[in-house]
Specification:
Layout lengths: L21 H15 L3 H13 L6 E4 L7 E6 L4 E5 L2 H27 L3 H5 L4 H10 L1 H11 L3 H18 L9 H6 L12 H14 L4 H10 L5 H7 L15 E4 L4 E4 L27 H14 L12 E7 L10 E9 L6 E8 L9 E7 L7 E4 L2 E7 L5 E9 L2 E4 L2 E4 L1 E7 L7 E7 L12 H7 L15 E7 L7 H10 L3 H9 L6 E7 L4 E4 L5 E2 L10 E2 L9 E2 L7 E3 L5 E4 L22 H15 L6 H8 L5 H11 L6 H7 L14 H17 L14 E4 L14 E4 L13 H10 L22 H20 L8 H4 L1 E4 L4 H4 L2 H7 L1 E5 L22 E3 L1 E6 L7 E4 L16 H6 L3 E2 L4 H7 E8 L1
Parallel strand pairs: 1-33, 3-8, 12-21
Antiparallel strand pairs: 2-3, 2-33, 4-5, 6-7, 6-24, 7-29, 7-30, 8-9, 9-10, 10-11, 11-18, 12-13, 12-17, 13-14, 15-16, 18-19, 19-23, 20-22, 25-26, 27-28, 30-31, 31-32
């Protein structure tokens, strides 16, 4: 989640904001000198400032507003378990405790969601604030709070805010965190009171990062500048339904009842969705000029701070549940590990919320993972059920090309007025800036208003003859379910107290955005799956895969899929359910197009294979078996490619020496494996030669320049007929990223030796590649010398972990502060096993390099037979204070694949408690 603004993102909030200004940097340097200087006062000030913000965890404190005493019991890792006698006291205490550990993170997050980063960090964040104000997350959150949320949810949000503000009362910035102390040298910013809307708005940031296929929609349109329709189709192959199983397998849509049912029934498909539409009035290609426009849009989107992921790219997760008949406990086991951006502190905050006696006055006994700044528990278990989440990837966003005429926009031959509002952005150390936000009748904001270049390009954009005349140009608007008020916050509290399958499904019905795969298990040995969410339906001929013409009403959304029509599964005969971002349901069993951009099922099928191997071998699955499955780092693409690589006759003895590393390799990507290092380098170079160098500059890595043919890059490059083009995308967002979509692309053509994609032009050092083996040989050679440069000539010193490293960065001054301050706030590196599209998904972007981009942000295994035998781990630690013992105290264990005991019962919690703080009324 500038500075980057949330605790979870690995990205800076704005590429334009990477430099704070010379004066600010000098002041921060002075601060660092004060912290580390030899003068006695400077040394004392540094120590006292660092310690001033550490929370009190023992003894007692008085909190005005409590109705009774509350116990806060922290274990040896600083993880709190809260005990109260009323719901309001429970959530008030949660707000207080989270503020103790993480208020700076919470404060930065709410400034991001409300478009007020400039108030904290100055002019470098104005562009980000303009975009975020245009989206209007906080306005939607306020409308949700005012009109949609239940009275009980509002009561809990108010109690949580009261607890946060009780913590803030009487404190200066330096008493809250070290970052505020540093910020105080450049800004007179003072933290303001927390509001319930601040908590609700966080769900919008979460939804933004889990928004579905918006990046693919942009990328496909950008590709049309250099690739034809068939080539683009090659790069977006159909989901392999016959090979990689869908999430639901025993249900289908019943056209008679108009609902999704488990078991028999035939499907005639009465929905309005199409699976073959293209958008843009049915064209297979984007309008001329739209490519540049979309590229500018992508840059704007890429600048927006991420909340929990990598700006919508590469986000995945694993979860699975196994019924008691296949476990050693005879009760279900449930595992979950969401894959999100690496951050410091971790986006997740572990805690337990316990009523001393569950009753109508106090209804909760729940433990798990939540977000600092939001009450309740998002993923975890209570005394009856457990649940996990993975991103469903369903398509809940569409881009629209709008024809601007005068002060309005064209729609079905008429000119309609925009809805407008003014937004004033306050800038620390500078003048305020006012912007005008324009929205269509459907509440779609014009994203292109936030970039002058978009306006210029829009004036030159051309479309087919069926579109309106160009006139003053075209703009780009966004339709997104999260911009409509909903009640997802209600769902959090409903999940936390659900006691059975029917109550779980009722809670899921409120979880409108973001749409997540929800898995379920209960103590009565039931398991289940539910796809929730507000998922749009579209007109026939429009599948949402490309931008649509906003001037034609037939491309507006026609409604939303009913809850009764959404796929689910309950106690399937096979005895387990796996969700890992694969297709939810077979396309032949469902009439609606949920998305055209599923994950391709590499991880989900590997998990399925591991479970079935255990079952078919007659074994019973244990908690540790589930943990070991989470750590599986087998490379599925290596199993496909390595046998081909080993058959190639390599002349160069140095390359042949590297090739021999692959002989006998078991395809596991251990951190100490030289073979894994060499294979991944070869895979990266295969992708670059076969695909990357043929993509338009808008998708390639910024600063990487090529001589490319003006029309077709697949033939030999003639120096007199090429142009110099440099990539424009950030390294961890570029293509080909090497994920399982690219696995599927290569799988489709692997046996076609002479496929055009295997052709690569001649260079100064290499002959042209005319077939697969020639390209593979060149990739092995390039990989050999790339690793020689990175790791040394002696292959005995090579290892995957030396390339594949994780750095945890404090997401504000840890990314933009001076070096010494970054040293104070950041941690790492860790050499990691795993890789892209493996179950142990330590993701890296093959276009940009080998560094870890996203990770299993937490891991948990819930034992429904005995909750005290459940296990969990967080990426970092409970604390956001840089010199707290709990800043990164879980990271070493996380990197090794270890899990911590997860106490739940009163007896287990008491046994594991190190510190107890009593909050008194």
């Amino acid at each position: 989640m500038p500075p980057n603004t949330t605790a979870s993102s690995g990205q800076k909030p704005g590429k334009s904001g990477r430099k704070k200004g010379r004066k600010a940097r000098l002041v921060l340097i002075v601060l660092v000198l004060a912290l580390f200087g030899g003068v006695a006062y400077g040394g004392y000030w540094g120590v006292s400032t660092v310690r001033a913000s550490f929370p009190q965890t023992k003894g007692s404190l008085t909190l005005d507003g409590l109705s009774g005493p509350v116990d806060v019991k922290r274990d040896g890792n600083g993880i709190p378990q809260i005990y109260a006698s009323s719901d309001e006291d429970l959530f008030m205490a949660q707000g207080y405790v989270q503020a103790q550990d993480r208020f700076y993170e919470m404060d930065v997050r709410r400034h991001m969601t409300s478009g007020r980063l400039s108030e904290m960090f100055g002019s470098s964040q104005v562009k980000n604030d303009e975009f975020l104000r245009t989206m209007g997350w906080d306005r939607v959150a306020k409308e949700e709070y005012d009109t949609k949320l239940s009275p009980s949810t509002k009561k809990y949000l108010q109690a949580y805010a009261k607890g946060v503000n009780a913590y803030l009362r009487g404190k200066d910035g330096k008493d809250i965190s070290l970052e505020y102390a540093a910020l105080g040298f450049t800004n007179d910013y003072k933290p303001q009171e927390w509001t319930p809307v601040d908590s609700v708005a966080w769900l919008k940031a979460m939804a933004w990062d889990l928004r579905g296929n918006m990046q693919e929609e942009i990328d496909r349109s950008l590709m049309t500048s250099r690739l034809g329709p068939k080539q683009i189709a090659d790069l977006y192959p159909e989901y392999p339904y016959s090979r990689n199983k869908t999430i639901t397998q025993e249900g289908q849509y019943d056209s008679v009842t108009g609902s999704y049912v488990q078991g028999g029934s035939t499907t005639s498909g009465s929905g309005t969705q199409s699976t073959s539409g293209t958008g843009l009035a049915g064209n297979a290609t984007a309008p001329n000029g739209l490519q540049s426009q979309l590229s500018k849009l992508y840059n704007v989107l890429d600048n927006v701070p991420t909340a929990v992921g990598v700006n919508g790219n590469g986000i995945g997760s694993n979860s699975w549940v196994v019924a008691g008949k296949y476990t050693i406990t005879n009760k279900p086991l449930l595992a979950n590990d969401p894959h999100l951006s690496a951050s410091l502190p971790s986006v997740w905050y572990q805690m337990g919320l316990h009523c001393t006696s569950v009753s109508s006055k106090c209804q909760y006994d729940v433990s798990g993972y939540t977000f600092a700044g939001m009450p309740g528990v998002v993923i975890g278990h209570n005394q009856d059920i457990a649940w996990g989440m993975t991103n469903s990837g369903v398509d809940v966003t569409d881009l629209y090309l709008e024809k601007i005429t005068g002060e309005g926009y064209e729609y079905d031959g008429k000119v309609l007025p925009f809805t407008t509002r003014k937004e004033t952005i306050k800038v620390a150390g500078g003048a305020n800036k006012t912007i005008v936000v324009r929205e269509t009748k459907d509440g779609m904001p014009l994203l292109s208003d936030r970039d002058d270049e978009l306006v210029k390009v829009g004036k030159k954009a051309t479309v087919d003859s069926g579109a309106p005349d160009r006139g003053d140009g075209y703009a780009i608007a966004l339709r997104w379910t999260a911009l409509d008020p909903g009640n997802s916050m209600d769902a959090v509290f409903q999940l936390d107290k659900a006691s059975n399958w029917s109550e779980f499904r009722k809670a899921a019905a409120s979880f409108d955005v973001p749409s997540q795969n929800l898995i379920y298990a209960d103590t009565n040995d039931n398991i289940g799956y539910q796809l929730p969410g507000k998922i749009p339906t579209r007109s026939k001929g429009d599948d949402g895969s490309l931008p649509s013409p906003g001037w034609d009403s037939k491309y507006t959304w026609t409604g939303y899929i009913k809850q009764s029509e959404l796929p689910y599964e309950y106690n399937p005969k096979r005895g387990y359910i796996v969700t890992a971002n694969q297709a939810v349901v077979d396309k032949d069993k469902y009439p609606y197009t949920l998305t055209t951009d599923w994950g391709y099922g590499t991880r989900s099928q590997r998990i399925t294979d591991l479970i079935e191997a255990k079952i078919k071998g007659g074994g019973k699955i244990s908690t540790d078996d589930m943990r070991q499955m989470q750590l599986d780092d087998s490379s599925e693409i290596a199993k496909l490619i390595v046998p081909k690589l080993l058959k190639i006759d390599v002349a160069d003895k140095n390359v042949r020496e590297a090739q021999k590393l692959l002989e006998g390799w078991d395809y596991t990507q251990d951190a100490d494996s030289a073979a894994a290092a060499y294979f991944n380098a070869t895979w990266r170079n295969i992708l670059k030669l076969a695909f990357g160098n043929k993509l338009p500059k808008e998708l390639r890595v910024k600063g990487q320049c090529l001589n490319v043919a003006p029309v077709d890059t697949t033939g030999p490059a003639d120096e007199n007929q090429t142009v110099r083009e440099c990539g424009q995308r950030e390294a961890d967002q570029a293509q080909p990223d090497g994920g399982d979509r690219w696995f599927e692309v290569v799988r489709k053509i692997i046996d076609d030796q002479n496929n055009d994609w295997w052709k690569a032009p001649k260079t100064r050092l290499d002959d042209a590649a005319g077939n697969r083996d020639q390209l593979f040989a060149r990739a092995m050679k390039d990989a050999r010398w790339e690793l020689t440069a990175k790791l040394g000539k002696d292959m005995d010193t090579w290892s995957w972990g030396r390339l594949h490293r994780l750095f945890l960065k404090n997401q504000t001054m840890g990314t933009d502060g001076p070096g010494v301050l970054q040293y104070m706030l950041n941690r790492g590196p860790w050499k990691l096993s795993g890789g892209e599209a493996t179950v142990n998904a330590t993701g890296w972007n093959a276009a940009g390099g080998y560094g870890v981009v996203w990770v299993p942000s937490m891991r948990m295994v819930v034992n429904l037979d005995d909750f005290d035998k459940s296990k969990w781990i967080n990426l970092s630690g409970a604390s956001g204070h840089a010199y707290s013992a709990h800043y990164t105290d879980q990271t070493d264990k996380w990197a090794k694949g270890e899990l911590l005991p997860w106490s739940f019962s009163d007896k287990a919690v008491d046994k594991s408690t190190s510190d107890t703080l009593v909050l008194k009324p």
